[in-house]
Write a structure and sequence with these properties.
With 119 residues, the protein is mainly β. It is built from no helices and eleven strands. The chain has strands spanning 3-7, 10-13, 18-25, 31-38, 45-50, 56-58, 66-73, 76-83, 92-100, 108-109, 113-118. The strands form two sheets. Strands 2, 4, 5, 6, 9, 10 and 11 form a seven-stranded mixed sheet that branches. The chain has a four-stranded antiparallel sheet with strand order 1-3-8-7, with no helix packed on it. A hairpin with a 2-residue loop joins strand 7 (66-73) and strand 8 (76-83).
Length: 119
């Protein structure tokens, strides 16, 4: 059974950094991963994505500031989101998501982790 568990959220000041982690348990072969974020009252936004071949893509709003990466350790897929030069508008709940690389939609979601950036 696939389970995604995020960690690493918290508070930072403008210009600071945070690193989010997502642990993907269960079968993870040919899994494409993504980080999304959502603010209450707004639509969920795709932030960063990483394909099976490790190629990343980013939303324009975070390009050059965020970096997505992944590694396999102890038979678990771990996905990271390094966030630098944080801005107050980065404040949101961040969600890790997974999909089969052959599919379009993300089928598996984590519970979310809060990121708050103060000015």
């Amino acid at each position: 059974q696939v389970q995604l568990v995020e960690s690493g959220g918290g508070s930072a000041q403008t210009g600071g950094s945070l690193k989010l982690s997502c642990q993907h348990s269960g079968y993870f072969s040919r899994r494409c991963m993504g980080w999304f974020r959502q603010v209450p009252g707004k639509e969920r936004e795709g932030v960063a994505f990483i394909e099976d071949d490790n190629s990343p893509t980013y939303a324009d709003s975070v390009k050059g500031r965020f970096a997505i990466s992944k590694e396999i350790a102890r038979n678990t897929l771990n996905v990271f989101l390094r966030m630098d030069s944080l801005k107050p508008e980065d404040t949101a709940t961040y969600y890790c998501a997974a999909r089969r690389c052959s599919a379009v939609t993300f089928d598996y979601w984590g519970q979310g982790t809060q990121v708050t950036v103060s000015s």
